[in-house]
Design a protein that fits this description.
The chain has 228 residues and is of the alpha+beta class. The protein is 21% helix and 30% strand. A hairpin with a 7-residue loop joins strand 8 and strand 9 (146-153).
């Protein structure tokens, strides 16, 4: 009986530790009512990655932003999209709240190329146009293969991208398209896959990319020229 009880305690401890490690990957729950981000470290307390303004000094402007009726600045690529981001750097009141959002505007046949958000799940709501959205996950039986989850979205449609999954957004139409994205992180981050692999500084060894992608070295050199 004692051995069985010890075994159950061990299993329970292991499961608790496992799920605790998963939870730690997400933004921490707020530890106070207000924690408005501030740059002045002499009058602040360090919590969740940003210094906190004295709550007595917080005001409504800390929790306000405007300009989402307009497109953001076009990205410095030929992909044909622009992003208007609202995160803790733009709205200090988001600090510790674990939420942010972005507006993406895609030109006709514009593409948000394969990328991930390392710290957040993304919920996409299409406002205008027709957008092809999808993400891939490793095949459970063969990690060298993947499964694609994709949909064609129209205004009012919603699609969710699980955290850290490689995904894309592509405007299928001949007119511009717009969508809003909500993230469960005040700073979701973004890794643009092709730009990081072929445009890194210093560059990844040619032999690594040649073997990893099973491509000719001249093709790798061409890709470097496109993404660096």
């Amino acid at each position: 009986m004692k051995m069985k009880m010890s075994f159950l305690i061990l299993i329970t401890t292991a499961i608790t530790a496992y799920f605790s490690s998963l939870v730690s990957g997400y933004d921490l729950d707020p530890m106070q009512d207000l924690c408005v981000a501030v740059q002045d470290t002499n009058h602040s307390v360090f919590v969740n990655g940003k210094f906190c303004k004295d709550p007595k000094l917080a005001n409504a402007d800390d929790f306000f932003a405007s300009g989402f009726n307009e497109s953001g600045m076009p990205t410095p690529t030929n992909l044909g999209f622009a992003v208007n981001i609202l995160n803790v750097s733009r709205m200090p009141g988001l600090n510790t709240l674990g939420i942010s959002m972005a507006r993406a505007d895609l030109e006709p046949f514009g593409l948000v190329s394969p990328h991930i958000h390392p710290r957040a799940t993304e919920l996409i709501l299409v406002l205008e146009g027709t957008i092809y959205v999808g993400f891939v996950i490793p095949d459970l039986r063969n990690p060298f293969k993947s499964r694609l989850f994709a949909k064609v979205l129209n205004p009012g449609d919603v699609f969710v991208i699980p955290q850290s999954m490689i995904h894309i957004q592509y405007n299928l139409g001949t007119t511009s398209a717009t969508h809003l994205s909500c993230f469960n992180s005040q700073n979701p981050g973004v890794h643009m896959i092709s730009y990081q692999l072929f445009g890194s500084n210093p560059p990844i060894l040619d032999d690594v990319l040649v073997k990893g992608f099973q491509l000719d070295k001249k093709v790798i050199e061409h890709l470097r020229a496109q993404f660096s």
